[in-house]
Amino acid sequence: MANAKLVAVVACMLVILLETSTCVLARHHGNGGGGGTPGIMTVNGFQKGEDGGGPAECDGKYHSDKDMILALSTRWYAGGRRCHKPIRITSKQNGRSVVARVVDECDSNHGCKDNIVDTSQAVWDALGLDSNIGEVPVTWSDA
Description:
Elements: H1 2-28, E1 37-43, E2 69-73, H2 74-77, E3 86-91, E4 97-106, E5 116-119, H3 121-127, E6 135-142
Parallel strand pairs: 1-5, 2-4
Antiparallel strand pairs: 1-6, 2-5, 3-4, 3-6
């Protein structure tokens, strides 16, 4: 009987810890109106034969550069936990925001910096930015 109570108490504590860590993660990425996580936005080609490399990590497919999509640095990609999730990206240059969907990882173990939001041309266009600049400061948050 005592063992059953101990197991129940430990299980409850684990549930509380998991719920708390999930709430902290959500707040960390700007859901509380704090402006989001600072990052650097780059442009990526998600179509076959473009500079993005192979198919997207989330679904093993290529995507149109006209789609509102992005790849996140390894740490933010979180082992695929953000696959297909909407991300709000805000330009620090003009204050415009858009929502795009995570489809890929920008692999920080193979050359991608740790703070990259690597987006399609459609995201640059929607933000009114010139992709020839190459890199612009942004903030992002889970949308």
